[in-house]
Amino acid sequence: MTAVELDPDVIAWRDAFMLPPDGPRLEVLQADGAEYLQNVEKGIDALLVDAFDKTGFAPSLANREFFEAAFAKLSGNGVLVINLAGEKESYAGLIGEAMHVFDDQVIVISVPDDGNHVLYAFKEHYFDPRWRWLHSFAKELRANYGLDFPAFVQKMERSSKLGLARREAFRRR
C-alpha cells in the first residue's frame, strides 16, 4: 500500500494516529497525489482519495483529467474511492465528472452521523457485486471488528440498485 500526502506536517503526525512505520507492506510518500498518479504504473486495484485543502476538494483532483488518469491507472476491476465532505453542491460537478469518465459505474453513499459521502467509481463496465457473499462477509467483519459492515453493504447495494434503475429509465427515454 502506498499513501501519498502533500503536507509534510500531516505525515509528521503519523505516530499520533498510530500509523505503522514504512515497511514492505506500507510506504508513505510526501508528494502531490495528482502528479504521483501521472507517474505510477498501471494496475492499481483500489485508489482511495481524501484530498481536501482549506477551500474544499483539492483543485488538482477535482477535474476530468484526474478522473481520466485514475481510470487509466486502475486495474481491469479496480475501484476509485473518494471521500466527499462539505456541502453537496460543492462536489456535484465532481460526481458528474466521475460518472462521465467511468461510464456511470458510480455509487455515492452517505456516511452516517457526519454528513460526508463516499463515491465509488468502478472501472469494470459491468460491475456486478456478489451481494449475498458480501452480506455474509460483512457479518464476519462486524463480529471481528465491531463495526457495522452489514449496514454499509446494505446501503451500497441499495445505492447500486437505485443507480441502475435510474440509468435504465434514462436510457429508455
Automatic annotation (TrEMBL):
* Record-linked InterPro entries: PABS, SAM-dependent_MTases_sf
Keyword Oxidoreductase present in the record's keywords: the answer is: no
Q: What residues make up the catalytic site?
A: 50
Family membership: Belongs to the spermidine/spermine synthase family.
| PABS domain ranges (all copies) | 1-142
The protein's organism comes out as Candidatus Dechloromonas phosphorivorans
- Read off the SUPFAM superfamilies from this record: S-adenosyl-L-methionine-dependent methyltransferases
Name the UniProt key words of this record, in alphabetical order: Polyamine biosynthesis, Transferase
Q: Which domain of life is it from?
A: Bacteria
Biological process GO terms, please? polyamine biosynthetic process
| PROSITE patterns linked | PABS_2 (PS51006)
The entry's protein name is PABS domain-containing protein
A Gene Ontology molecular function term of the record: transferase activity
Q: What is the lineage of its organism?
A: Bacteria, Pseudomonadati, Pseudomonadota, Betaproteobacteria, Rhodocyclales
State the Gene3D superfamilies in the record. Answer: Vaccinia Virus protein VP39 (3.40.50.150)
